[in-house]
Write a structure and sequence with these properties.
Strand order of the largest sheet: 2-4-5-7-6
Oligomer: single chain
Distance between the termini: 74 Å
Order of helices and strands: HHEHEEHEEHEE
Shape: elongated
């Protein structure tokens, strides 16, 4: 006896339908809020990654600015002095200096370089310093072939070698050995720079700041997967670094 098209529903059915609609509406709002939260988190992660990359680039540029002026000035003075009594040594020093700065400029736009490239840079640097320090400076690189393809941020080790000379070896009348070591073990690249220091080393602010700066650079690149430690040893001073062993940029 009812018109066609209408369905008879009890008050309980109407209540259940209303609850179902409210539940669907609530779930829709929650899903929408969750989607917004995920998008916001992704945008924040992207901004953070871009900020870290920009920070690394800025840090590398600042590091190059710290290295270039005084190192270039001292090297040019040494070349000028050598030209009067040892032109061959002056020419070789100029060649090493050109290679050194060519490599540092080439590294500016790169996030990672091979360990082999970093060690080549160090070889040019120590060759230049050896012209200035003579027999006072000995350097040795212990890097097995399997370590050379490992990737690391540019200018990771070279500033440590510079610190080893500035804060350690130059203050010693007899000079000493600066040793760079590399080892791959269990998926990790282990690096170390060791050098002698005076019995009463001078406390210079630049050393601590440089090491903390290195730690911050590696943390920005590897998060909690990088380790940096430093301190006195029976033979002098050592800086040790542990990084994930990677041969391809992740």
């Amino acid at each position: 006896g009812r018109p066609a098209g209408l369905v008879s529903m009890t008050p309980t059915s109407w209540g259940l339908l209303l609850l179902a609609c409210l539940a669907w509406l609530t779930l829709s709002i929650l899903a929408h809020d969750l989607l917004l939260a995920v998008e916001s988190a992704q945008a924040a992660a992207t901004r953070e990654a871009e900020a870290r990359l920009l920070a690394r680039d800025m840090e590398l540029q600042l590091l190059r600015l710290q290295i270039d002026p005084h190192f270039l000035f001292n090297s040019l003075n040494s070349i000028s002095a050598l030209t009067s009594f040892d032109p061959g040594a002056a020419r070789q020093m100029a060649i090493d200096l050109a290679h050194f700065f060519r490599q540092t400029l080439a590294m500016a736009g790169r996030e990672r370089i091979r360990l082999e490239e970093e060690l080549t840079l160090i070889e040019h640097y120590t060759a230049i310093e050896r012209q200035r320090l003579g027999d006072k400076l000995e350097s040795r690189i212990d890097a097995p072939p399997e370590t050379l393809a490992a990737l690391l941020p540019p200018l990771t080790l070279q500033p440590l070698v510079e610190n080893a000379l500035k804060h350690g070896l130059r203050a010693l009348d007899e000079g000493g050995l600066v040793q760079i070591q590399a080892l791959v073990r269990d998926g990790w690249l282990h690096l170390a720079v060791r050098n002698p220091v005076p019995a009463e080393p001078t406390r210079e602010v630049g050393l601590g700041q440089g090491l903390r700066h290195l730690r911050e650079r590696l943390e920005a690149t590897y998060r909690d997967r990088a380790r940096v430690s430093w301190g006195p040893t029976p033979s002098g001073f050592a800086v040790e670094i542990s990084l994930p062993f990677e041969t391809q940029t992740p």
